[in-house]
Amino acid sequence: MSTAIITSNTSIDHITGSGHPEKPDRVTTIINNLKKNKNLIWDKSKKFDESLLNVTHTSKYISDVKKSFPIKGLNFLDGDTIVSPGSKKATEDAVGSIISAIDGVENKKFNNAFCAVRPPGHHAEKDKAMGFCIYNNVAVGAKYLINNYSYNKIAIIDFDVHHGNGTQNIFYENEKVLYISTHQYPYYPGTGKENEKGKFNNIFNIPLPAGTSSEEYLNAYNYVIKKLIEFKPQFVLFSAGFDAHKDDPLAQFNLNSKDFYEITKRTLESTKKFNFGKIVSILEGGYDLNALADSSNEHVNALLEFN
Q1: Which CATH code of 3.20.20.300, 3.40.800.20, 3.30.420.40, 3.40.630.40 fits the domain covering 3-305?
Q2: Which residues pair with 208 in a beta bridge?
Q3: How far is CA 235 from CA 47, 104, 105, 182, in A?
Q4: Is 123 known to be catalytic?
Q5: CA 54 from centre of chain
Q6: Rounded to an integer, what distance in angstroms lies between the CA atom of residue 2 and that of residue 112?
Q7: Distance (Å, rounded) from C-alpha 10 to C-alpha 96?
Q8: Residue 40, pLDDT score
Q9: Counting beta carbons within 10 angstroms of the beta carbon of residue 282, is it exposed (0 to 12), middle (13 to 18) or buried (19 or more)?
């Protein structure tokens, strides 16, 4: 067994308009770089039961999203979340990628997986699109683990530089899911204070200032590891945003590509005795193409090393 990369041909059909940072090149850049690695397994998104959307988002929101896809041109779900005709299948396949990844791990097709798809998802709340995100892919994955595989201890680790307000919103009162976020604060979307802890103390936010260095970040990440060991997750999901990189244009952290290897490795090592290495990761942010390619490669290298 090995590490799988789950992709979808439709990711490039989600058009956001000229100059938009969340663009098709993000996925093609990652995939083209990872194809140099001959040790990876490649797989595709799969169709999924729509009931998974219904337990993650409100029925009205799902209905509104379905109606939003234009026949031609672009449509705005909010100021910066844009859909095109190709977005319908891309959003479905982004969700389907994490389902495919989870099934692959559970059926021992591969050890762990990284879903290189778009649009991202962690800003999408139960009833609202935000920050380039339409459906909350990682949240659907967690719901799938609960409903289809009867897990009751799932950790979602979100190292995107922006707080995943949507994931926090969806699981704020769910004791089966521990949501952990490291993020720049104060910054978009304005959520993610330390005192936002969830009904069951299942939300753990680590807000960090602009200019945070690699050393400062990795020191803070020790608190993530401590929380994970306390929680003893049976399955780990990564919201893998690479926009904490020093070259990213949308934030002001100063991480290097190699730091994403270290983040991933530390997480794998600290949780393996609880989950036997069951980890699925899905792409969130990251908007400098070179930094995105290098950082995602480091992330995948750590996943591969764990096999």
Answers
A1: 3.40.800.20
A2: 184
A3: 22, 13, 10, 19
A4: yes
A5: 19
A6: 7
A7: 12
A8: 98
A9: buried
Mean pLDDT in residue range 168-174: 98
What is the identity of the amino acid at 184? Q
DSSP 212-268: -BHHHHHHHHHHHHHHHHHH--SEEEEEE--TTBTT-TT---BB-HHHHHHHHHHHH
| Euclidean distance between CA atoms 37 and 219, whole angstroms | 31
Q: What is the pLDDT of residue 254?
A: 98
Of residues 57, 123, 163, 299, which has the active-site annotation? 123
Mean pLDDT of the chain: 98
Residues comprising the chain, all counted: 307
CA distances from 283 to 1, 31, 67, 201 (A): 22, 12, 25, 26
- The pLDDT assigned to 16 comes to 98
CA–CA gap between residue 97 and residue 141 (Å, rounded)? 9
Cα(118)–Cα(95) distance, integer angstroms: 9
Kindly report, residue by residue over 4-32, the tens digit of the pLDDT: 999 999 999 999 999 999 999 999 999 99
For the record, the structure tokens of 200 come out as 């069951």
Residue spans of the domains in the chain: they are 3-305
pLDDT given at position 307: 85
Query: Cβ(127)–Cβ(163) under 8 Å?
Result: no
Burial 36-65 (b: 16+ CB within 10 A, else e): eeeebeebebbebeeebbeebbeeebbeeb
Enter the pTM of the model: 0.98
- Residue 66 in tokens: 């379905």
| Token pair listed for 228 | 């994970």
